[in-house]
DNA sequence: AAGGAGATCAACCGCCGTATT
DNA sequence: AAATACGGCGGTTGATCTCCT
């Protein structure tokens, strides 16, 4: 029944910090053979480690495509924005920062960004300005329920988006299997992504040059998935009597605002969309507006420098997951709710 | 210079979804 | 269909580093 026993049950395996010799062995083995099955790798590579430990060391430290060192302002902004959308889904966030590991992002969030937001008076969990208990009571329970509805609203959109992302990744994987990479790709063979989307995408689509048709098809599939998934969610919840499409556009706007604010020259649009969002949430969301404006300010402070590949990647993903209706609505007049 | 406190980050742990038998 | 392993993820820990007194 089942598979053979797990390596972690073997005794005498080493734990703790890796030595340079161990790193060298692991690196040499993977460069020559690829990681293959992690469980059997330590034995083949002559390491007294469990496969899990090897995988972790590789994905978080030894992988050649890892960018180390300080996070840039833009990376910080991306993390904050994505965390507002995704919460503690570090691997999902890491797909938008391809050269950073989820572990690194998680550490950076916990040691830097969380504290910084807290200092700014922003709850790092909800990304809403902290309101003391009295003010909250004075604001009334209605505001709280609207806030809850707002969060749920966002969560539904995100759930649909993640579903599309997963589908995209699966398709990419299938295509990769159908057409294996050339043997000359020495390091692509050892590419061991912790996350699915960006790596498989980059491997397959080669920075957008190799197979634009496939990319386009995948994007269309993703968009369709979001549309259908979120459309169902909207119909199910009858958002304020609006049509599913309109509601979807509104929900998409929020995510669009969060992500699209990275676009060079998008300051104005961002401000408009922030306005649209605050209109959507009326009243109690003055605080939200303030928060998103603060993010805008952070973005603006770095926007003077030219756009990077990083931001353009985020934009690409935004476009990928923002259906046409939402994108159109977001760039036109604010949606009335 | 010494040592205590806080910050940082690599690595581990345990859980979960998926694949395999 | 059930049992089990695998791979991946997020939370947490602990060793090390840095700063302050």
Question: How would you summarize the topology of this molecule?
Answer:
Blueprint: H1 20-33, H2 41-45, H3 51-62, H4 73-86, H5 90-94, H6 102-119, H7 133-139, H8 141-178, H9 197-205, H10 212-237, H11 244-260, H12 267-281, H13 286-303, H14 309-321, H15 324-331
The structure holds a DNA duplex (21 and 21 nucleotides).
Describe the structure.
The protein is built from 15 helices and no strands. The protein is an all-alpha fold. It is elongated. It binds a DNA duplex (21 and 21 nucleotides) through residues 1-6, 15-18, 37-39, 51-53, 55-57, 59-61, 88-91, 102-104, 106-108, 110-112, 194-195. Pfam families: Myb_DNA-binding. Residues 10-62, 63-117 form the HTH myb-type domain. It is found in: Nucleus. Keywords: DNA-binding, Nucleus, Repeat, Transcription, Transcription regulation.
């Amino acid at each position: 029944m089942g598979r053979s026993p797990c390596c972690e049950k073997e005794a005498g395996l080493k734990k703790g910090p890796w030595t340079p010799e161990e790193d060298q062995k692991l690196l040499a083995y993977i460069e020559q053979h690829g990681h293959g099955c992690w469980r059997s790798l330590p034995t083949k590579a002559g390491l007294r480690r469990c496969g899990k430990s090897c995988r972790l060391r590789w994905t978080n430290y030894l992988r050649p495509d890892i960018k180390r060192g300080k996070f840039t302002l833009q990376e910080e902004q991306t993390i904050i924005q994505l965390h507002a959308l995704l919460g503690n889904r570090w691997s999902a966030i890491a797909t938008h920062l391809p050269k950073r590991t989820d572990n690194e992002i998680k550490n950076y969030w916990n040691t830097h960004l969380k504290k910084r937001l807290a200092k700014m008076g922003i709850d790092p969990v909800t990304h809403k300005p902290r309101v003391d208990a009295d003010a909250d009571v004075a604001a009334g329970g209605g505001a709280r329920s609207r806030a809850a509805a707002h969060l749920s609203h966002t969560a539904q959109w995100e759930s649909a988006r993640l579903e599309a992302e997963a589908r995209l990744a699966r398709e990419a994987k299938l295509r990769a299997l159908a057409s294996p990479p050339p043997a000359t790709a020495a390091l692509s063979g050892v590419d061991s992504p912790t996350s699915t989307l960006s790596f498989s995408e980059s491997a397959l689509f080669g920075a957008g040059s190799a197979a634009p048709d496939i990319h386009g098809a995948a994007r269309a599939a993703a968009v369709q998935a979001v549309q259908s998934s979120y459309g169902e969610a909207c119909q199910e919840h009858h958002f304020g009597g609006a049509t599913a499409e309109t509601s979807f556009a509104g929900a998409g706007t929020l995510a669009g605002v969060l992500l699209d604010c990275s676009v060079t020259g998008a300051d104005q649009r961002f401000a408009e969309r922030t306005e649209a969002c605050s209109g959507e949430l009326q009243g109690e969301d003055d605080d939200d507006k303030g928060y998103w404006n603060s993010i805008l300010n952070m973005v603006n402070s770095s926007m003077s420098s030219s756009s990077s590949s990083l931001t353009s990647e985020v934009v690409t993903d935004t476009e990928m997951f923002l259906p046409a209706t939402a994108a159109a609505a977001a760039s036109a007049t604010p949606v009335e709710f």
